[in-house]
Structure formats: C-alpha cells, structure tokens
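for the writeup, i need someone to sanity check this before i put it in the appendix. the sequnce is what the collaborator sent (i think, or maybe the updated version? ugh). structure was predicted straight from it, no edits. if anything looks off just tell me and ill rerun, i have time this weekend
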Amino acid sequence: MMFTPPLYKQRYQFVVEFVKRHKPKKVVDLGCADCSLLRKLKFHRDIELLVGVDIDSSVIKHKMYALAPFPSEYLKPADQPLTIELYQGSVTEKELRTKGFDLVTCIELIEHLPLAEVERFSEVLFGYMSPAAVIVSTPNADFNPLLPGCSGFRHIDHKFEWTKTDFQNWALEVCRLYGYVVEFTGVGKAPSNDESIGFCSQIGVFRKDPYRSGTSVRCENLENTSSYKLLYDVVYPSLCDNNIFQRTLVNEVLYWAEHVKREWLEASEKEGAGLHVSDITAFPNDRQEQDISEEAAQEPYLQGGSVCVPLARVLSFPSVHRLCGSLQRLQEALQGDCRVALTGDSLAVALAADEEEETDADEEWAECVGPACAEAVKCAVDCTEDWDAEL
C-alpha cells in the first residue's frame, strides 16, 4: 500500500501544522535521528529554541550540519535569534535541559523502547519534563494486515506495536497520572475509510489540563550533573545582535543609496543628452538656508565629486525604515561607521560618482569589514532548502 504523500512526510507535516497554529517558542524532538523534522521546523521562526535528542550519536552527526544557517540568513537575519542544540541521550533519563518546553515531539519513537521501559519514559516525559504539549505518533497494529508484505512488526528494531485500543489506554492513563488531556488522530487512512481500524500512524496530541494537576516527578539534585552529551549547537544570526544589526543596516543603506544614485544619474544624463557627471548642476552647499520642498530635500545632489543621497530618501525604503524608524536613529547608527561616508551635516550618504572611484571605495570597504563579510554581502544568493531532497 502506498500513501501520497509518503507517510513519513504526513507525520512531519502534522507537526509543522501544529507549530504554525500554536507557535511554540521552545521545541524538543525526542528520537530526532537524522534531524529530518528539525530541518523543517527551523524555518518557523516563532521558535527560539529547537532541540534534538537521540541515543545514537552517529545518526545525528550524519546530518547535523544541515542545520547550520544559510548565507542568506546572515544577509537577512531574523528579528529574533534561533538556537539549535543536538544531544546524545536516552529518553528514559532525566535531563535538566529538557524541562520547560512548550512542545515535545515523539515521532515513531515509543515502539523502539523495550516495553518494560515505557512506564519510565512516560514518567520522564510527562512527569519530569512536563511540557505544555506533546505529540506522540506510533504504528497502529490494527492497520498492519492492510500493508502488503507486512508480517509481524513494521521495522526490525520495533520492540512492540500497539493496537488502537492499546495506544489509547496508555495515553488515557498518562493523562490521569500527570494531569493532561489527549486528542486522538493520525495520518494514513484505511482505503475503505473504516474508522474502526484507525490510522496507519496513530497520533496522540497531549496538552496540560488547566483544571487539575497530576503527579509531579521529584526533581533530584541534578544541577551539577548531565545525562546528555552536547553534540552540536548553533545560534542563528538575528537583529538582537548589535554587530549583526549594524552590518545589516549598513548593507541596506548602501544598497538603496546606490539604487537611488544610479536612477538619478541615468535620469540626469538623459535630460542632459549625454553630459558628463561633472556637468550636472550641483545642489547648493548651504542647504539649510534654501527654501526647498520636502520632496526636493530627498533628491540626490553633487558635492565635491560625490553623489549625495539624502538619508531621508534612504529611510523611505521599507527595509531601512523597519530597522531605524526615524531619521535621528538612522543618523546615530551610521555616524562613525567606516563603511558609510556621510556628508558634513550627516544628512546624506556620499557615494563615488565615477565607477573607478566606486571600485576603490569597495576595496577600502572590504578591507574595513574583512574579506569574509565582504564576500558574503557581495554574494547575496537566496539559498532555500529543498526539505525533502535528502529525506
């Protein structure tokens, strides 16, 4: 029997849709394996902390670097940071770093545990970790006779496979003990839509019951111990980092100032029937004493061989305005930054009028910010991940 899309994709999509609706900030995937689910969730930037745990370190290491930020995420950082952490550890062991999460996912995990350890797993997950929500998916043994060639368990590593009744009995007992409510659903419907069989992958969505408290598991003295080993961690670039904010602002200012300059030069040359830049009438130096309109005050002008683009004009572009909501803040942020040349009154960006001078300025700027940063900004490739290319 084939499912469209494949069953594993439907399970991941179920979690993704839950995250879209409820916007948890802290999410941990127990039994994360090759981090396939994490690679999907990292795009949902309401999440601030994304954690994966698996007992097999080799399977994590195989794909963990796929969770690194793309170059485009340094060029256009998010408003809030995202931290990703991957651990080697057992889901039946208590670990302080797993407490206080908004969502815990256990996708096709529980059936890999010895049946004798399921009670311990339930205690650690619901009693100790005590997350706001839990999503558990597991094979439905009632569905197995409908799967061609399936005799016995679906996978060689499965220690058991629950029927729909077995799963619901376990889930309801967990709710009774630890103060949760559960909704039963799943993915992969039977061909006959026979509801008595249930889904191929049955899912329980657990949420804390606000009207009653369950049994809490005593927090042992674990402050100075850790049962998990950190394998990988990364903090994504965000505008909360002052250095990243400054670099992003400068990039946006230079990009839009250059855009305005080019448009202005092209229009001026057309009006002047091919006159050289130096023949274009410069704006009067003492702009403060001129009675000019607000629109005219945003027009570029020549000064000392440079094209000066007013900051008011640059601020009018949404990407700049989002970063600095006022002209005063924009001026303060740019003053003293060696990558931006401001006019004496700090009201405009001075850009080289000639291409040769502009090239020299680019080289000086690259030396100022360092080759790695300069190369990243010049190579603005919008890298997007094909979620399922490697799954």
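The two ends are 20 Å apart (CA to CA). Confidence is low (pLDDT under 50) at residues 283-292, 364-391.
thx in advance!!
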